[in-house]
Amino acid sequence: MINTMSKAESESKEPMNEQAVANIYASMKTDINQIYSKITELEMEVSEHSLVMNAIKPLDPSRRCYRMIGGVLVERTIKEVLPAVQRNKEGLEEVIARLTEALERKKKEVAEFEAKYKIRIRKGDGEMKDESSKKEGNAQGVLVGPAGANE
C-alpha cells in the first residue's frame, strides 16, 4: 500500500531531470497522505472501541452480548468480550504509534529532498481565488428559527 524507497536506493538513483524530481516528490507526498489517512482511520477505530468499552463496563459481567468476529456474529458474555476489546484497542494504539513514527521519518525525508533540490511550492493568485470561491459555494448549513415560531 505504501510505496517507500530507502535512502540507499534514492541516493543511487539520482533523478535525471526536473520531471523525475517532481515525480519522486509527488510520490513522497502521496505516501505521507496515505499514512495520514491510515492513522485517521485507526484513530476512529480506537474511538469506537472506547465507546463500546464504556458502554459495557458498568453492566453485569455474566450478561450476554454479541461480537462480530470475521463477519460472523458470535454470542459471548461481557466478561469474555471486554478483555478482547481492550486488547484490540491496545493493538490499534501500538500500530498508530508505529505509523506516527513512520510519518515523522517520511516528513524528514521529504524535507531533506526539498532542501537538496530546492523545491518550493507555488500557488498563483488565480488558484487562490478559485479555492476561496469553492469554499463559499460549497458551504452548507441549516438555518433554525426560534422554537415555536411556526406554531
Automatic annotation (TrEMBL):
UniProt keyword list: Chaperone, Coiled coil
Coiled-coil ranges per UniProt: 82-116
Question: GO cellular-component terms in the record?
Answer: prefoldin complex
- Top-level taxon: Eukaryota
Q: State any single GO MF term.
A: unfolded protein binding
Q: Which organism is it from?
A: Buddleja alternifolia
Q: Which Pfam families would you find in this protein's record?
A: Prefoldin_2
What's the name of the protein? Prefoldin subunit 2
Using the UniProt annotation, give all residue ranges assigned to the region (Disordered): 124-151
